[in-house]
């Protein structure tokens, strides 16, 4: 986690200058104190930026996120804030930690791994996946262009049958 603290210290000014908004999902409060401090500082500095969004998933698990959303929904039902009959997919989506982030269109998985690994389980329902044997540190612009080209040539049906 020292790498995260170092990165944030060195790059947050550039992110802010480039109008990038930094957000984080996951249980960040269980990270080392210095990481939490630097992360919160960076999030606060960039919170009003309107350019790109940089979303960091730190100490994040999709199952836990869904469980937490369901617990929050149950609490809302108990206090009468939500009627049980009104719960739908949007209700769940709006209670996830990713509620302010659009669902991904493309998930790129590096290092030859072909699994979700508990990542954004709800949100990737209609995403396209790109798998590459290239390891993350070597994933460069050329590899990104290959992923985007592959994505552009997909027939996205969002669950529909053709």
TrEMBL record:
It is an enzyme of class 2 (transferase). Its cofactor is Mg(2+). InterPro entries: UPP_synth-like (IPR001441), UPP_synth-like_CS (IPR018520), UPP_synth-like_sf (IPR036424). Gene3D superfamilies: Decaprenyl diphosphate synthase-like. GO terms for molecular function: ditrans,polycis-undecaprenyl-diphosphate synthase [(2E,6E)-farnesyl-diphosphate specific] activity; magnesium ion binding; manganese ion binding. Keywords: Transferase. GO terms for biological process: polyprenol biosynthetic process. Its EC number is 2.5.1.-. One of its GO terms (cellular component) is cytosol. The keyword Transferase applies. NCBIfam families: uppS (TIGR00055). This is Isoprenyl transferase. The lineage of its organism: unclassified sequences, metagenomes, ecological metagenomes.
């Amino acid at each position: 986690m020292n790498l995260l603290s170092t990165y944030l210290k060195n790059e947050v000014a550039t992110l802010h200058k480039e109008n990038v908004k930094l957000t984080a999902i996951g249980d960040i409060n269980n990270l080392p104190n210095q990481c939490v401090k630097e992360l919160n500082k960076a999030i606060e500095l960039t919170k009003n930026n309107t350019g790109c969004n940089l979303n960091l998933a730190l100490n994040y698990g999709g199952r836990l996120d869904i469980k937490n959303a369901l617990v929050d929904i149950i609490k809302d039902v108990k206090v009468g804030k939500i009627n049980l009959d009104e719960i739908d997919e949007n209700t769940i989506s709006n209670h996830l930690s990713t509620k302010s982030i659009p669902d991904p269109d493309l998930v790129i998985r590096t290092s030859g791994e072909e699994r979700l690994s508990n990542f954004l389980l709800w949100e990737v329902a209609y995403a396209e996946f790109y798998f590459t044997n290239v390891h993350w540190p070597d994933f460069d612009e050329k590899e990104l262009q290959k992923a985007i080209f592959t994505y552009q040539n997909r027939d996205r049906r969002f669950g529909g049958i053709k």
